[in-house]
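We emphasize that the prediction below concerns an isolated chain of 711 residues; any contacts that depend on oligomerization or on bound cofactors are therefore not represented. The input was used exactly as deposited, without trimming of termini.
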Amino acid sequence: MRSYLNILLLVLVLVILWHNSVLSAERPWPQISNPTVAEVASNFKTPPPEYSMTFYWGWDGPVTEEVITRDLDTFKANGVRAVTLEPGYDMEYLTTGWFEMVKVAVEQARIRGMKVWLVDEGKYPSGFAGGKFSKERPDLRMQALVLAERLSVAAGEKILRKLSPETVSVVAVNREDNTSQVLDISNGELSWTAPEGDWQVLLVEHQFRTSPTRAVNNPTRGKDTSNSLCDYLDPAATQQFIEFTHEQYKKYFGEEFGKTVLGFRGDEPDYSIRGIPWTNKIFQEFQQRKGYDVRPYVASFLTRGDLAEQQRRAKADYWDVWSDMFGENFFGVQAKWCAEHNLQYLVHLNHEDKMLDLVRSEGDFFRCMRHVQMPGIDTIWSQIWMDKVADFPKYASSAAHLFARPRAFTESFAAYKPAPNVEQAKWILNHQLVRGINMVEVMFVPASSKGRSGMRGWLATEQFPQVARYLNRACYILSQGHPTASIALYHPSMSMWLGDEQANDCALTIMQQLLEQQRDFDVVDDRSIGSLLKLEGNELKNLSGQKYRAVIISSATAISKAALDKLQAFADKGGSVIFVGRTPSIVVEKTFLNVSGSPALDWAIIEPSGQVTDRVIKSLPKSDVILEQTCPAIKYTHRRWRDAELYMFFNESREKQTRKATLSGSGRVKVWYPATGDIKPLTGASSENGVASLTLELVPYGTKFIVIGAK
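Result of the prediction step, given as a token string:
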């Protein structure tokens, strides 16, 4: 009997392995790939629709089957083979009628060989299920710690009052010297007599508070707090969100999941609230993770002015805990559900271009993106333009590289002022592609019931179809193979939790200077250094198989002991570790409250200027791109296929750029033209001993895709 059961178990395992291998073969695009140049070339002319640019297709007018078919036909005729379907104001969201009409759209897309992404919300940000939390599950709404009351108390005056069950902390602050006392409220009442001084008593409560939402069911069409978001820190709330949304779509056309329907698209979940994030179990969670009670400190987090050192560190501990819970209980739960249903979860946060704001409202970019299948950014308010330094797309592409995700996306345009023309729009998109973005979503293309699609502006020009084909082919080849950057740049979220704004400024400066000197890199978070990167000899390997041979630590106040230990071991093996700017003054093991002092860094290179100096450059590994003369306007990205190297170059300037260049790679040197699908030898190029020599010519705002490898 036991032998029979063992045979059955073996058969079951083999069936599961066969099913997974078949699924991977049918759906190669969500996986890190290792194709040959011949395999990539075979699809270059007409890439699979999964790699198509997508229109953010807003159903803001009366939508019928006729409108759906007309729009899809128009989009496909213009080279767009995927849509991101966004709910609109003219159809009641999450009703039977809504799901039936989406089912029609999915079926019509299937007939045309097109793909569909589903926006997971009735506008934005993600997580209010079109208002269902406010109406049906108010117990799972977003919550915050807020300063509920301030009481001025003179010396000798006594306060005696019953407290509401929502009160979690009471602190008395002496305004004469800014000292404070945590008041005992364990019996549910406040009883305190003020000593000498000028006192203000602060009462902190947890309350239901939500970030503003723009909801399709809001009659004002405004952005307000009438439809509450769910409690992002509570996995039960996220499960309820999935039940309200994802599970309902599954009932109507789940058989198309992973086929026509590629995934769910989230948008800007964050805590844009008055107060700080809170959930029912956060104090217990904090106690388990940090080993102390944070409640005596929370009132200080909400006060104006500078915090005392202990308060500042306790606040950093609080940020550490809630940002972890956000990543695990909101993003992680959705990513797991999508993976179980052969779908991708793609989402971008709020303020990727303003990292200090992002840290305040979302905690930590990389913890949010750790589980997400397709990390993203947005540029809808002219964050990227010719006169700006805007390297923030590197955050999304770096997260993709770290966590073995083949793609990173951009939500672009929507509210650009001035609206771009074709040349400007293409510049904005190339700016992102060369920083590692390889999936393009263009806003805003509303559905129309007036006999034409919602394509307008530069999308409606006669040049657009060529731009679409260019993007489809470029995104396809930029999604193949492995990333290759050998430099990691430390992301100082922990220092920003402590209020260190200079840490962010220094990191941005280093990003700019590295790119301008043709030194590609990934941004790497503290936790990934400490726990995810694997030390192999004198290299640190991420989940994509990419290997870093140098790590730059930008100006920082704090670093974790786990990251520091990994970096020292890396340096001991011959890796290059370079501290640029201020070196950390505290080393965090379990808590910020109890830390070690400044670490000994005699094993590392120290560059106190905060700049990428010649000394820093000489400490970095040899670059895979060397120009005869550096040119700040030339940016590049590099991916490795099984038997070839792919380079994309972009000239961000108005002037033609010509440089002699050497590139790592062996074999024939060819230029791939995404605009036409042609592949041609590069005249005058040669390759010998793993190095290709060529003349790089880039017209103003021009790109060039060079492949070095097998025939």
